TrEMBL record, chain A:
Pfam families tied to this protein: Proton_antipo_M (PF00361)
NCBIfam families tied to this protein: NDH_I_N (TIGR01770)
Organism of origin: freshwater metagenome
Membrane-spanning residues: 25-50, 57-79, 99-118, 153-172, 184-205, 225-244, 276-295, 301-319, 354-375, 396-418, 433-459, 480-499
Name of the protein in its database record: Unannotated protein
UniProtKB/TrEMBL annotation, chain B:
Any GO BP annotation: electron transport coupled proton transport
The NADH:quinone oxidoreductase/Mrp antiporter transmembrane domain, residue ranges: 152-445
Subcellular locations according to the entry: Membrane
A single cellular component GO annotation: membrane
UniProt keyword annotations, A-Z: Membrane, Transmembrane, Transmembrane helix
Protein's name according to its UniProt entry: Unannotated protein
Family assignment from sequence similarity: Belongs to the complex I subunit 4 family.
Basic and acidic residues bias (residue ranges): 536-547
MF terms in GO: NADH dehydrogenase (ubiquinone) activity; NADH dehydrogenase activity; ubiquinone binding
Lineage of origin: unclassified sequences, metagenomes, ecological metagenomes
């Protein structure tokens, strides 16, 4: 991948570098990404060498440790960015700024949660293997590449690494036909949307003469395009590509089917990690690169996407009877909320989106942890009726799920409230009152969906006895994941000061490359 | 900590010695009021199900301690001071100017004391038939959130508590309510949340516009924004409307009231008591604290509409109450009528009207809380709330009937009982500034007598039908539980002066603030109240008035 980056570096840079040979690669700047990638490759090697003698918990623990190490590696980089400012490395292809580090942290967190959930899941389903974890780590590495890309081609490569692994993960449950169906659906539609993104990149290149974000930004601020149709078409195509990845309406139709069909832990990763990476790309390309010059052109498009996602997500969710589908639609409405912050196109909006993504990672991975547990062997019992009586049979589990659901509804003193609050704050600061009202009202509609699950769990006592009999096992990994998610959800809601400051410091910047 | 605080010398002498009082204000009173019930909830959560007998004890103990704190706060409250007392101001999210800013003034003081008193009574007075652990746990969370909402002086903090009270109430109605409980709980939750959605956008807009106008960093501090009054008139009116929707749902005002009869009727007894006594006050309290104080101009602009809605509520609530076949639903509709009086008094923009409103807020909590408790006991005995199925209870349960009579008369607003001073002051205040609204509102007093007396007649008089023969009279324990409310009903009816003395400075400060900010607004009742000759200070003359009024009524019943 590094070689690819070098090849795709802008021509001027290559010319400048020609005298010294290959461009200097600062490995420390891409340490988190390297850790994830090498972790994945090494895991595959080690497990192959051990020839099936490795204990079943080994790949999961390896993955958690790898992702934790990647998070640890973020801290010195964060200090460096805060001291020296944002930097560009690898011949202008990779940006090192607070924003990319924050998103990397979110993706690593979602890998940890995904691995913890997978551990019990693959054992229960009898489909153990290291491939799950290898793909998870590689997919995350693609996401991190995407978040830190300073070049559209690098961003596309990141997106593909992220997506291809995710397609396979979706279809990996060999015993469930719906998993394979979902994988195929995800792949076909995903490939289609990638093509749109690539087409958009090509058009933008045609309009601006570069794929490097810094140069595009500079070109657009120096030059007044007499005919900008090419560029605007590029915006539209790229928005379709990113809109698909984040699950924004009207490019959301894959989400309910894929969320429902994919193995539940993979859905958890999809809703948190992949969404974060998609938004990172969207924010960096649109807000940071095009925002200062062409904001008035793309903001109405994002406005429309945001409103549609909010309405479709919340209204369609309330008529669902399958909890996974409900959460899929709710994730569309959350994507709409984050798009509201994107629409603000300000540093405040970017911080709000980052805070939202982190909060949502805790809430949604927690929710899918419950879904994973409740799916029981076969990963098939996800109907709302399957949750009836849970409040009586397993009060602890039901209470934790209630916390996640209420947090997603935006109840105060949970992460969900403040993330919504920051988004509203950022969009009101731009004078978009109508959008703020639409967002909040659709949040009320969505609250009905969460209440339906709560009603099923608590207010149908008749089903409690039946539920008591069906033994629900909580594997060790899932219980750790639940603890992390609950602590995260409440921590961001009660003492949000520290993370808010970090999100505010996580500014996305484009800095020209200096060799 | 608790021990030193409950020291009798502090309790009894606190108000007399300034030193003691300052000591008390060094004690983090408001955090104690919020945290104590939360500790109770945490303990309840940790006790295993095998020790189910402990849940109620712990809930009662922690709520009594919280109640004792609130009474200690009442004692230590400096009565001449119009500003906020027991103030705590800590940064919460410093980057956005959100702080943990708490304080109490004359307007919120009695609502907090009411919260502290009514919770132990509701806990002791109502039985729970299943799942005691979450029941008491949620009640404790509700108590903490209620205390928080009345003492928050930061917009975001207020909003957070305002929304938080929904969650425990939702579960209380949904899990321990009557037959239609899920519908009622969901309706209650969504209705209130919809109102709050507008308020959140409104409060963020307010803070952003305020920061822009002042040129400083963004702040959500109520006191500061209210003082600045920096936003434009148009923006102020829009944002007021956003707040007004949230509060109007919570009050509830006429077209937005439909959640209330369902929620109150379906809730378990303790839930109804707390809904009526505490939850319903959030809206009217919000109108005073976040309407009048933050948007004096917009509130004054909207006053005719709000007063009209208030008066519609008085008449509509009374008419609906008359028609009810279900005793609990009747009491629920009577709340709409009482809340109409409060709204009328708040938007009459006069000292008497506002004071009267605050008095009704507290006294409605006491009387209607007691009424719901009694109706709950009737339901426990007869398993019905249908008026038609109850008859002649006075003959089989004379003490019960006596207690019911007293509470009912207080709810009607008979002079000498606690319902009267508030309604009287509201009518007085609205006569001064908005005569025709006052004229129509008076009829509400008569209608209240109609529906309550008629209901009383059908339930307690008449022949004792077969199923009512075994109706048990008031037990001693029940009598002890309701006794504090009865004492308050009589005491506050005869002698509301201690309350008025503490409410008045804050009300006057608030109206002076309105006076300063609104062009062409003139406090009218100053002329109206001061028939007393010469130099008598306004405040003194008013407390005189309160006193003599109470004095006059003393002889009547």
């Amino acid at each position: 991948m590094i070689a690819l980056i070098v090849q795709d570096a802008p021509i001027e840079t290559l010319v400048a570098e020609a005298s010294t040979g290959t461009p200097e690669i600062i490995f420390s700047a891409i340490a988190p990404n390297l850790i994830l990638m090498l972790g994945g490759v090494l895991l595959l090697t080690v497990v192959s060498l051990m020839r099936g003698k490795s204990p079943s918990w080994f790949p999961a623990v390896w993955t958690v440790v790898t992702a934790t190490l990647a998070i640890v590696a973020l801290f010195p980089l964060w200090a460096r960015v805060q001291d020296e400012g944002a930097q560009t490395v690898m011949a202008g292809a990779v940006g090192l700024d607070g924003f990319s580090l924050f998103v990397t942290g979110i993706i690593c967190l979602s890998v940890i949660m995904g691995a913890l959930l997978l551990e019990g899941y693959v054992r229960r389903e009898g489909i153990e293997g290291a491939e799950w974890y290898v793909l998870l780590l590689l997919s995350a590495s693609g996401g991190v590449t995407m978040a830190s890309a300073n070049d559209l081609i690098v961003m596309f490569i990141g997106l593909e690494i992220l997506s291809v692994a995710a397609y396979v993960l979706t279809a990996m449950h060999s015993k469930r036909i719906s998993s394979q169906e979902a994988g195929l659906k995800y792949f076909v539609l995903g490939a289609f949307s990638s093509a749109f993104l690539l087409y958009g990149i090509a058009l933008t290149y045609g309009a601006t003469g570069s794929t490097n974000l810094v140069q595009i930004q500079r070109f657009l601020s120096d030059t007044v395009l007499t005919q900008n149709g090419l560029l605007l078409a590029g915006f539209a195509f790229m928005l379709i590509g990113f809109g698909f990845k984040v699950g924004a309406a009207p490019f959301h139709t894959w989400a309910p089917d894929v969320y429902q069909g994919a193995p539940s832990p993979v859905t958890a990763y999809m809703a948190s990690g992949i969404k974060a990476a998609g938004f990172a790309g969207l924010l960096r390309v649109f807000v940071v690169t095009f925002g200062p010059t062409y904001g008035p052109d793309w903001r109405p498009m994002v406005y429309a996407l945001a409103v549609l996602s909010l309405l479709v997500g919340s209204f369609m969710a309330i008529v669902q009877t399958n909890v996974k589908r409900m959460l899929a639609y709710s994730s569309i409405s959350h994507a709409g909320f984050i798009l509201v912050a994107v629409e603000a196109s300000s540093t405040q909006g970017t911080s709000a989106a980052l805070f939202y993504l982190l909060a949502y990672t805790f809430m949604v991975t927690g929710s899918f942890a419950i879904v994973t547990i409740m799916g029981r062997t076969g990963d098939g019992t996800h109907a709302l009726d399957d949750y009836r009586g849970l409040g009586r049979a397993r009060p602890g589990l039901a209470l934790i799920f209630t916390v996640f659901l209420l947090a997603q509804a935006g109840v105060p003193f949970t992460a969900g409230f403040l993330s919504k609050f920051y988004v509203i704050n950022s969009v009101v600061a731009e004078g978009q009152y109508a959008l703020a009202v639409i967002a909040m009202v659709s949040a009320v509609v969505a609250a009905f969906l969460y209440l339906r699950v709560v009603v099923a769990m608590y207010f149908s006592e008749d089903a409690a006895a039946e539920m008591m009999e069906s033994r629900i096992k909580i594997p060790a990994g899932a219980s750790i994941a639940l603890v992390i998610a609950v602590i995260g959800t409440l921590w961001l809601g009660i003492v949000p000061g520290a993370i808010t400051d970090v999100a505010n410091d996580a500014v996305a910047q484009l800095v020209a490359f200096r060799s | 900590m608790i021990g030193t605080f409950l020291n009798p010398s502090t309790l009894l002498l606190g108000s007399e010695f300034a030193e003691e009082a300052t000591n008390a204000s060094n004690f983090p009173m408001i955090p104690a009021l919020i945290i104590t019930p939360l500790i109770g909830a945490a303990i309840i959560a940790l006790i295993p199900r095998s020790r189910a007998d402990l849940y109620k004890q712990i809930a009662v103990i922690t709520s009594v301690i919280t109640g004792a704190f609130s009474i200690a706060m009442l004692v230590a409250f400096q009565k001449g001071d119009s500003g906020y007392q027991f103030v705590i101001d800590q940064p919460w999210i410093s980057g956005l100017g959100i702080s943990l800013h708490f304080g109490v003034d004359g307007i919120s003081l009695f609502l907090m004391v009411l919260t502290g008193v009514i919770f132990p009574i509701a806990l002791l007075g109502a039985k729970v038939d299943h799942d005691p652990k979450p029941y008491y746990g949620w009640l404790m969370v509700l108590m903490a959130a209620s205390m928080g909402v009345f003492s928050s002086l930061d917009l975001v903090l207020f909003f957070a508590f305002f929304e938080l009270v929904l969650v425990p109430m939702y579960f209380l109605i949904g899990l321990w309510g009557h037959s239609n409980r899920v519908y009622a709980a969901t309706k209650f939750f969504l209705y209130t949340m919809l109102g709050s959605a507008f308020m959140l956008v409104g409060l963020v807009s307010l803070a952003v516009l305020n920061a822009r106008a002042m040129g400083g960093p963004i702040t959500f501090d109520l006191v500061e924004i209210a003082k600045n009054q920096a936003i434009s008139v148009t923006a102020g009116r829009w944002i007021f409307c956003a707040f007004a929707v949230a509060f109007a749902v919570k009050v509830p005002l006429f077209p937005l009231h439909t959640w209330l009869p369902d929620a109150h009727t379906e809730a378990p007894t303790a839930g109804s008591v707390i809904l009526a006594a505490v939850m319903l006050k959030l809206g009217t309290y919000g109108f005073i604290r976040f309407g009048l104080d933050l948007f004096p101009e917009a509130s004054h602009w909207a006053a005719p509409v709000m007063m009209t809605l208030g008066v519609i509520g008085i008449i509509y609530g009374a008419i609906c109450a008359t028609m009810q076949k279900d005793l609990k639903r009747l009491v629920a509709y009577s709340s709409i009528a009482h809340l109409g009086f409060i709204v009328l008094g708040v938007f009459a923009f006069s000292v008497q009207g506002l004071e009267g409103s605050i008095l009704i807020m507290v006294n409605h909590g006491i009387s209607t809380g007691a009424l719901f408790l009694l109706v709950g006991w009737i339901y426990e005995r007869r398993h019905t709330r249908k008026i038609a199925e109850l008859s002649g209870l006075q003959k089989v349960a004379p003490i019960f009937a006596g207690v019911f009579t007293l509470v009912m008369l207080s709810s009607i607003g008979v002079p000498g009982l606690n319902g009267f001073p508030g309604e009287f002051l509201v009518l007085l205040g609205s006569f001064a500034s908005a005569r025709w609204w006052g004229v129509v509102a008076v009829s509400g007093v008569i209608l209240a007598a109609l529906y309550l007396l008629w209901a009383y007649q059908r339930v307690f008089h008449g022949p004792v039908t077969e199923p009512n023969k075994g109706f048990r009279d008031l037990r001693l324990t029940e009598g002890l539980v309701i006794a504090p409310l009865l004492v308050l009903i009589v005491f506050l009816g005869l002698y509301p002066k201690p309350m008025l003395d503490r409410i008045e400075p804050s009300v006057e400060r608030l109206l002076a603030h309105v006076d300063l900010e609104v062009d062409g607004f003139e406090l009218q009742e100053v002329k109206f109240v001061a028939p007393a000759p010469g130099e008598v200070e306004d405040k003194a003359s008013h407390s005189e008035a309160g006193h003599t009024e109470a004095g006059q009524t003393e002889g009547k019943p």
